[in-house]
Write a structure and sequence with these properties.
The protein has 99 residues and is an alpha/beta fold. It has one domain. It is built from 4 helices and 3 strands.
Length: 99
């Protein structure tokens, strides 16, 4: 049997209990994936509409993600699946900044 892992990246205010990630997690589990839900620590408040705070929140979330994911040996898995909500929910101007 293949060894599979799915990594879920929630958004600010869009956690893994929301439909997009809830059903992604459910489908992955049904297909035998080990589930990793990235948890973000404390992030800046009132980020909506504030590009500077959005970028700060993104950088902190990235740091928290790296700390958690660096502990995982992805090379031992046959399949790695990930779901990035932030790409779907980020305003268009922020997408240009982080790319």
């Amino acid at each position: 049997m293949k060894k599979k892992i799915a990594v879920l990246f929630p958004g600010i205010g869009y956690h893994t209990d929301k439909p997009l990630l809830y059903y992604s997690r459910k489908l992955a589990m049904e297909r035998g994936y080990e589930i990793i839900e990235v948890k973000y620590g404390e992030l800046p408040a009132n980020v909506k509409g504030n590009a500077k705070k959005m970028l700060e929140a993104f950088n902190k979330a990235l740091q928290y993600s790296k700390e958690q994911l660096d502990k995982i040996e992805f090379n031992v898995y046959d399949e790695v699946l990930y779901q990035r909500v932030w790409e779907l929910l980020l305003p268009q101007p922020m997408r240009r900044i982080i790319r």
